[in-house]
């Protein structure tokens, strides 16, 4: 490629309903965005359609030669394949092999009742990820230092392998006691499985999560195994289609990255070996993109709300950096891999409204998705959804994507009326009730990510994005008493934009429990060196020159006797006793921040080191946010931006009221709107409720606050 040829980096986020695309011209800095319907029967079709569409738009916008597939320099992809599979519980038969005597580790679990249930009487324990009859054990034992206590019984291992083969169970998770310290038995088990059951798909705990705690390691390994077949098939299909589309050969493969849950990306070739790292692929990209946009807008405390077709994902971002956790989960499945601290609920635009036998109205978690989709799509959907309620109430237009997808508001109304008849309500009351329930589902998730972390939500702005993320924004402000809302330009494409801001990132961890007062500094230094060597090898394989490598260290510590750890960053440089003292001081400070106390000055309270971690980072060039023109001196917004007036229902008691509709691309920096109003754009709609004020900033963001917030908060 000549130096004059454009280099186009593309970010593609495939959701349950739409595939979002953002193209970044590295030469000019221009960003181009679009959307196309997702194709659940073969997601690669929607993926390639999206690239086709954005390249056509680029070719139209450029004065030079037509942009072609050969100008693409890299593609980054966020996918909800693993997320949706876990949320909907659609897992294939799965087997589990563990150490003799530990066959009930999944049943015992943590014996903890989730918050919000009051007591165990109201909580129904979720189904095990593997039924008891598909758990098998093998004799053999390591101790916590990796020494063999009992030899591995290979004859027994072969019997287990043959049993799973004969039962037709082709996906297995293997977790042997203390395999984090010595993986030899697990590795031999895999060799035997492949000999006796050649088509088997296997996940080993020592490769998925090299940490102690048997239950969490078992669950994380089994989640990895559960999503591996579908994720591997999906990535392989996409990769083959992309190579064919761009005409690349084996010697000059186009860089193709998949978003990981930890806020980094990984090459598609490696993702098939680490599918669990993608369980929050799409949500992670959105959180990063929204955090960057909010920080540029001047807000350092932000809650993000990413509303898609199947689910809504929320997280907290401080100073542009999303919070990280290793205590996350997707649906009912805990996962201890490093991930952006996202809470996901089944409350997307396609979430289905239904009634219980007792006559209660429920919304989700089942989704109509993209096929057949909501009733208003006219594709055979028969169950009313959140989108149908919005269409019926006039809050979104009778079409999507600027007219590409017409919506049948009358059909949506008929579907809502059936629900209303069962409940004895008016159709308007049923529709607003559906949206109210959906908003409370989202609000509960936002509380979980903020209030339960000790944060005061009244100090936070809400950044909404995704196709449906902004539709309930004003209601969420009312429920949570938030400071306001930031709606980015092209909110439906924020996740795809986030993919273009993400570095390559790999995480490595090793458990090494030791008290601080007896810490072997040389041993700790050796652990960090080995983890950094693994990170270096991965970055070299990803094509990054050694001089570009960056490494982040961190350590999990706790007070002796505590059950859980606090993670703190560890400085770079030579590992010495002084370096370790700096880490423990950071732990005391973080413990006080989280829990309100510390034992820094208590000689009888000891600090314990538990896990050491290294993240290897390969940095990329990030696009810059563009600014829009000022409204100063321009015609009044009612002349240049108002496109229509239509009846909209914001409150069932008030019914439908005539509401001004504005086209967002015609709004300029400095414009101010008073609710009620509807702001539409190509991929999203923002209903501005009565009592709210919206202003447009220099980057085109809609900054919304409640007009009477001060009075309401008294």
* Largest sheet composition: 9 strands, mixed
Shape: globular
Radius of gyration: 26 Å
Structural class: alpha+beta
Approximately what portion of the residues adopt beta-strand conformation? Answer: 25-35%
CA-CA gap between termini:
63 Å
Unreliable segments (pLDDT under 50, ≥5 consecutive)? 710-714
Q: Report the mean per-residue pLDDT as an integer.
A: 88
Bin the helical content.
Answer: 25-40%
- How many extended strands? 37
* Number of H/I helices: 18
Written description of the protein model:
The protein is an alpha+beta fold. It contains 18 helices and 37 strands. Strands 13, 14, 15, 20, 25, 26, 33, 36 and 37 form a nine-stranded mixed sheet that branches. It has a six-stranded mixed sheet with strand order 3-2-1-4-11-12. A four-stranded parallel sheet has the order 6-5-9-10, sandwiched between helices. Helix 4 (154-167) crosses helix 5 (184-196), helix 10 packs across helix 11 and helix 11 crosses helix 12. The model is unreliable at 710-714 (pLDDT under 50).
